[in-house]
Amino acid sequence: KLIFLTQMCLQILVNIGEVEPTELDFLLRFPYMPNQTSNFPWLTHVGWGGIRALNNLPAFKGLEKDIEGSHKRWMKFIDSESPENEKLPGEWKAKSAIQRLCIMRCIRPDRMSYAMKGFIDEKLGSKYIDARSIEFSKTFKESSPETHIFFVLSPGVDPLKDVEKIGKVLGYSFDHENFHSVSLGQGQEIIAEKAIETASQQGHWVILQNIHLVARWLPSLEKKMEASLINVNSKYRLFLSAEPAGDPLMHILPQGILESAIKITNEPPTGMMANIHKALDNFSDETLEMCSKETEFKAILFSLCYFHAVVAERRKFGPQGWNRSYPFNVGDLTISVYVLFNYLEANTRVPWEDLRYLFGEIMYGGHITDDWDRRLCRTYLEEFMQPELIDGDLEFCSGFPAPGILKYAGYHQYIDENLPLESPSLYGLNLNAEIGFLTTVSERLFRIVFELQPRMSSGSAGGGESVSQEDIIKGVIEDLLDKVPTPFNIAELMGRVEDRNPYIIVAFQECERMNILMSELRRSLNELDLGLKGELTISSVMEDLMLCLYMDQVPEQWTKLAYPSLLGLQSWFGDLMQRLRELESWVSDFRLPSSIWLAGFFNPQSLLTAIMQQTARKNEWPLDRMCLNCDVTKKFKEEFTSAPREGAYVNGLFMEGARWDMKLSTITDALNKELFPAMPVIYIKAVTQDKQDVKNIYECPVYKIRLRGPTFVWTF
């Protein structure tokens, strides 16, 4: 809804000339200066790069100096809980609404969705923002035999209930045989067609559910709907429901079905409160009373509801919630409750171990494909499913103890009265998790609105615009081609080396990959350059490349030869240059760098494996008995001048969700607003498995980027 409102509001303002194009472009595209260093702990490097870029626009002259000069006022503003409701420091509070948004996007990107709501409220009025869903009975009044109602399904929302409810009031129900509901799947098409025939003549209601499951039959459905309107009974109503496709190319619903319908979507409930209530809604007093061990059954059932709400709602934190997203659903919860009932009836004592295994490895764990996610699911169950739960000594999160024995309505009331306000701590996450999640939400908002902006193609009549877009692209091509280096001469490098140890082989592999990537960059940019000069026909691949260069995105033909990255094109290229410089300095003399930038490799695993190979060869140990020991040092990379005798020092790692305490040499809670605290240099050396430290150790997964999931590197 917010994406739609933002697009609508901005277009209205553009049409009445209230928006300066360069400012709108900055707000949506956020073209910050890459590789800038912020001197303030309360402002990120990217944020400072944004301020420096903004400083070049006429309305923002002097912004950079003002922040440096009055940094106390700015710090107070940036650190406030909801800065979008505060006034900007100094003369900046008098700026226009869109200019204030530009500044805000640099300094508190995580608050931008709230700031946009305020902006829409100010420009269009509050009725657009106070999102209450329209009562279904009002929408129903607009329907007719010709205008049917189409529900776009979202997870956890059941539109059938709305239809049944209003049907009862108006005298349409299964009992009266004038309400037909068909859930589509194999062989149901004929039943659906018959229902439409009967209902259109006799004035009944029909609801066809999940029509996306029968793609082939949809054209016949469209024809059937048209035919049923001849001599139609004025009381006839048709309701359809389908899930939206994950990708625009996968849409299968005929346009005619959608165009003649009123389309309704309800967003699924968000937040812990809504989700626990929703989990409890699947049960009733009868369920709660059905077990002979009432105390145990009720306590564990409530605990399952909390667990269900946590695992479902954790998804919103992205990769910090789950490495991959899983379709946990109500079925998992109800079947777990039946398993619980059977196990309690069959045993004299509560079989905690068995229950945790059944819930965590089978009912919920059956969806989980990632080992780290499985560990997380197991950990939740170890916390929530233990004898303290029955004694009433367990807290699900701080400030929310397990309830005693209550009636069904009592549990709902208990949640309303006792559940703390929505925050990451309800899920056992650090408060910073919310900043990351909110930043991602607003970045997506602006990316989509930016992609919706009208673009002039080079052949269009609107002279002025089209030239500038092509000029931007030509500028980018020139800039990148200038910086693409000559390839590494691998044959010449090999000739300089006598001892080809595992490290040297890693260096060669990295050079080879760098050459392949750089030659594709050079080839595709030169090809596009010739295309823009009119010497080559522009192909669809070249068009995609043009769009990427204009939108500051990394083209797919480059990323598939590179490494996972979430950066925009300019920052990605800056990062690529840094990787290149590291590699050049390594192969200049082939001495292992005093400390290695692990994140700068195409394939970081190869270096870690090389450490084990080198040690195994030297000591004549079998390679399959080796593993890595990681010692976190007390220094950063600048303080190291030479490589260790064995193993390697590695730098460039960050921790998410916690931080390393250098004084105590332990993992500890992250500081507020510090999302990715840097790790000191880690000394990695290979040992045999029997020598590995196991006391007070946390097994920590290492990933290439914060998308986690498939970018797993190693366990430190």
Automatic annotation (TrEMBL):
It holds the Pfam family AAA_lid_11. Residues 297-433 form the Dynein heavy chain AAA lid domain. Residues 441-714 form the Dynein heavy chain C-terminal domain. GO terms for molecular function: dynein intermediate chain binding; dynein light intermediate chain binding; minus-end-directed microtubule motor activity. GO terms for biological process: microtubule-based movement. GO terms for cellular component: dynein complex. Residues 145-265 form the Dynein heavy chain region D6 P-loop domain. This is Dynein heavy chain. It comes from Drosophila virilis. The lineage of its organism: Eukaryota, Metazoa, Ecdysozoa, Arthropoda, Hexapoda. The gene is kl-5.
